[in-house]
Amino acid sequence: MTENKFFSQPRGYNVEELFSSFSFEVPIYQRVFAWGDEQFERLFKDLSEHFRSAERNGRYHLGIITVVRPETGGRLILVDGQQRLTCVLLLGALLGWNLDPTKLSYAARPADRKALEDVYAVFEKGGTPSLDGISKVGNAAMAGFLRFALTPGKGLEMFEALKGKSDTIKEQLTLMVSCLPDEPYRKDIFEQNRYFEKMNNGGKQLEPHEILKVQMCKGLDGLCLRTWNSVSDFGRFSKLEEGSDDSFAGERHPLSSVLEEECPPAGNGENALLVRVYEHCQDKNQLRHYEIGTEGKDDLRKGLVSFPTFLLHVRVLFMKKHMGRADEPIGDESRLLDLFRELTALPPEQRRAFIDMMWEYRKFLDAEIVHLVSAENESQYSFYVRESDGTVRDAVPDEKKALMQFQSMLYASSGPDQKWLLDAYGTYRDNPEAFGLESLKHLLKTGGMLDTQAKACILESKEWPDRCLAYGTENRRWFALLDYLLWEKFCRNDDGFRRLLECGKFDSCKSEISSAIRNYVFRRNRSVEHLHAQTDTHATAPGEWDNGKDIFGNLALISAGRNSEYGNLSVGGKYDRVVKLLQDGSDTGSRIESIKLLFMLAKCNGEDDKWTVGKARRHANEMLVVLQDFLRQTGQDT
What we know:
Blueprint: E1 11-14, H1 15-21, E2 24-26, H2 37-50, E3 60-68, E4 76-80, H3 82-95, E5 104-106, H4 110-123, H5 131-134, H6 140-149, H7 156-163, H8 166-172, E6 173-179, H9 182-185, H10 189-199, H11 208-217, H12 222-232, H13 255-259, H14 272-281, E7 301-302, H15 307-322, H16 336-339, H17 341-344, H18 348-368, E8 371-375, E9 378-386, E10 392-395, H19 401-412, H20 419-430, H21 437-446, H22 452-460, H23 476-491, H24 495-498, H25 510-518, E11 526-530, E12 555-559, H26 560-566, H27 571-585, H28 595-603, H29 613-632
Parallel strand pairs: 2-4, 2-5, 3-6
Antiparallel strand pairs: 1-6, 3-4, 7-8, 8-9, 9-10, 11-12
């Protein structure tokens, strides 16, 4: 667009003038083309009524499109008006206007660009295409526009009337073009998005990581953009095939294309179609875009970190390797753009190296680290497992069960930055073949994941010292580790250890206890709480627990919600609640909040008067041996 074609006020262009003068690019913050039958019907009715008689055959104004001039010339940035402009091109295909669909491109949605070209391919031979031909258009909304126009009882009758006025409509259909000032809009995509949202109140603001995507990928090739898109989607296994758009989020398949496949349905009865669409898409988060609507399959998977935190992890790795800054902190994702200011100013080859590093780190997470999978309203942990035919599924092989438990323990006892993942990646890069449970155990014991003062105190003590891991200290990682070690010993059928769980009251639910421990699930919403309550209401002797309530032997991990439910219940009252949880959820283990708590209840037979300060200290000494045995193993465990 040349300088003299811009005006301080919006100027109208008919279809011929618009597409002969300008080309447009839809920026990444724009939502997808989303008009449906209601909008299509309103447009067709308005056009039909306007061009029905000679008296009304003046210009028909479709509205304003808002643009920004790019810094380097070329395509105008379409800040607002994508829906209108897309409809004009679709209408042009229907009415044979011989427009160029490449005049509208998409910064981050090549599949939509291809779909628009497919629309014109359907009409290039002339005549009216069949509905089957339209089904090959890979965008449901665009195909829906054509299907509406060619369906009797919907838009066909209006479309037939418009065909007779085709040349007149092309000449009189007018769009106003409004150009935003260069400052602040030309260089600031956030300001563009802010303007867009003012015009479209139903949308959401551009996220900082989306702004960062534009800044980091600017001037780089399509492979870098596809890589970014692929690694940013934690709702699926990440794969990338050079030169292909099929591997990243955003690809759509209309339902009709799935129906045309010759393979038999993968499900039975009413679920057969859904399962087939589900498998064809491979991206569960995209299921809502199919013509059959949302089927409740969104957000099946997510990673252990958010994508912004993932970016901060890669930033730490990049700073160490390329900038020589080995002690760079992870930082907080609320400051994402500030923390990346230095990197966005780097030349293209260095930003490309950052994106390559994103890919390598994401491959490590997919291959070696558990992810979360929603099942029956609860999240479970799972690995990605590649089958012999190359397909990937969620599973936990028996040989990886202990690794899953150890990793989920680290996840559940870590803060939002999940620094242990970065430490684990360093171990993996040093020796990929040796990475696994034992290398992670070694890292936990020798690295900085455990408080060194508490570790020294535990190793040096013959009896549990009251000052160590008492209530009110930051010690959740130690309690989570202990639950893991108790789980591991129980699953190894350590007879002496299992005897610590024996008590008369547990006789009626031994199988439930066994199942609950084997299927124990580590959760993040746990805090360190008391077995004997902080109040002395249920003490056998007044003042008995004055100096013992906060010691390690009286503490276990319990969720805030469960702790509130327990309130100041007696030990016996808490035992009754735990037994009910065992009976309700032992198969999944999701109801049991602390394995240590089961050992504490066994020690007192679930009775108030038998849970004494002395019993709490003896329980602490038994746990001391468990932790010492783990910490004293030197080198890589055998």
